[in-house]
Inverse folding.
């Protein structure tokens, strides 16, 4: 065993044990290990008996990864998973540390890891995955990631290094993601939506990838599901949405999600879930395609998805002071708008919107002007806003002709929101990432912040 690896392992495991006693610092042990030995994770890569699955994309990573993990675990296989949502290399390294013994040995069939968009190329290089799933690509934290074209180029270069034994799963509805599959050595599979009841007539003003990634011509859409995702083609170079290996059909959104999936030469299957939103219909398509590749029994898949509970701020539900609270993480224009769309059904809602501008949120909050807040006129009559940029958010909502109450202090904002609720009503909180961590800490009494 490499001496640097051994020292990194021992120090980081001691730190990990200490932090577990304090319920904090999920990524710190991995950060320390990588500082001591930059190749730390390479020592674990070959120990997975069946391989590693990496899941990346702007929106939907945490829920999708958790579902895949549950499907694999349900097969009585050992799985290592970065469950706390720490999706940089340090977070994955911490998960490996937690699962290893003091000699650096792990006993796992699969590794299922959520991976940050900017980290994906490095993760591919180090972990040599068996399956890579890319969900979508939207603007998010421009001060950190830059424009989406740069991210896509980095992804393409890393995907080209994969072996012919690797499976790459791509969202055909996203033109930038779909065209990553061209001329790859790996096996490439596509999933997408095929439900004309949920088509938008026009592409939204905040859509990101409306130009052909190959020739920069304006794309033509036969159908738009949300943002720039839909049935698309280029009339100049004739690129178009690839044929689907799995199609998601007959989507029902009120109040929770059900759908039908179609695979070639297989009977159609109806899926019920506690998740919501058209975006989760797409995510479920990805999960179901992977389950098909792994040859997991369809009845077992349906049960796991039906029983799956939303986690870590993604439609996660709490009971706090006798009242029901739901959190919908909303961290970029597309994600925030789709969170709002999930609330359009049923009675008027009680809303608390929380905008922070810490590094993990993106320090530039101008993106809020690309959120379709005008939809909230059909959702609520009064909104409480909070967070480090509460006043910026209140101004944006004023332009949308919405009434707001400003309470910058989050705990007070939650208390004020709950005071307006009857016992049978639910408070819906739509926070950015660091605000979500803080909300969870208040509601749950502990924090998973790094």
């Amino acid at each position: 065993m490499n001496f640097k690896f051994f020292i990194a392992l021992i120090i980081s495991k001691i730190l990990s044990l200490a932090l577990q006693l304090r319920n904090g610092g999920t990524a710190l042990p991995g950060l320390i290990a990588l500082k001591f030995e930059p190749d730390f994770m390479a020592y674990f890569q070959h120990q997975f008996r069946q391989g590693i699955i990496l899941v990346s994309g702007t929106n939907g990573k945490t829920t999708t990864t958790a579902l895949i993990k549950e499907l694999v675990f349900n097969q009585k296989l050992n799985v290592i998973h970065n469950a706390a949502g720490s999706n940089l290399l340090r977070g994955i390294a911490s998960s490996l540390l937690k699962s290893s013994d003091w000699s650096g040995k792990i006993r796992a069939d699969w590794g299922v890891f959520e991976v940050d968009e900017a980290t994906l190329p490095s993760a591919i290089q180090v972990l040599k995955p068996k399956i890579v799933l890319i969900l979508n690509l939207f603007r998010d934290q421009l001060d950190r990631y830059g424009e989406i074209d740069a991210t896509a180029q980095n992804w393409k270069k890393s995907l080209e290094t994969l072996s012919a034994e690797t499976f790459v799963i791509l969202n055909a509805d996203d033109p930038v993601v779909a065209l990553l599959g061209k001329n790859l050595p790996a096996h490439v599979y596509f999933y997408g939506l095929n439900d004309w009841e949920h088509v938008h007539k026009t592409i939204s003003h905040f859509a990101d990838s409306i130009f052909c990634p190959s020739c920069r011509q304006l794309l033509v859409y036969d159908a738009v599901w949300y943002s720039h995702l839909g049935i698309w083609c280029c009339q100049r170079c004739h690129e178009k949405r690839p044929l689907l290996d799995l199609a998601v059909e007959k989507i029902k959104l009120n109040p929770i999600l059900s759908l039908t999936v179609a695979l070639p030469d297989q009977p159609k299957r109806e899926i019920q879930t506690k998740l919501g939103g058209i975006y989760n219909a797409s995510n479920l398509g990805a999960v179901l395609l992977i389950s098909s590749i792994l040859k997991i029994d369809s009845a077992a898949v349906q049960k796991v998805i039906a029983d799956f509970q939303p986690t870590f701020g993604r439609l996660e539900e709490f009971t706090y002071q006798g009242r029901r609270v739901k959190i919908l993480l909303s961290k970029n224009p597309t994600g925030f708008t789709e969170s709002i769309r999930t609330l359009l059904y049923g009675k008027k809602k009680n809303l608390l919107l929380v905008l922070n501008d810490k590094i993990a949120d993106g320090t530039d909050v101008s993106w809020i002007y690309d959120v379709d807040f005008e939809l909230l006129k059909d959702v609520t009559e009064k909104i409480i806003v909070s967070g480090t940029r509460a006043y910026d958010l209140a101004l944006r909502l004023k332009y949308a002709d919405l009434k707001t109450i400003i309470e910058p202090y989050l705990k007070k904002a939650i208390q004020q929101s709950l005071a307006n609720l009857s016992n049978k009503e639910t408070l819906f909180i739509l926070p950015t990432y660091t605000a979500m961590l803080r909300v969870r800490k208040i509601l749950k009494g502990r924090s998973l912040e790094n």
About this structure: Residues 3-307 form a domain with the UDP-N-acetylmuramoyl-L-alanine:D-glutamate ligase fold (CATH 3.40.1190.10). Residues 3-22 form the longest helix (20 residues). The radius of gyration is 22 Å. The CA atoms of residues 273 and 306 lie 4 Å apart.
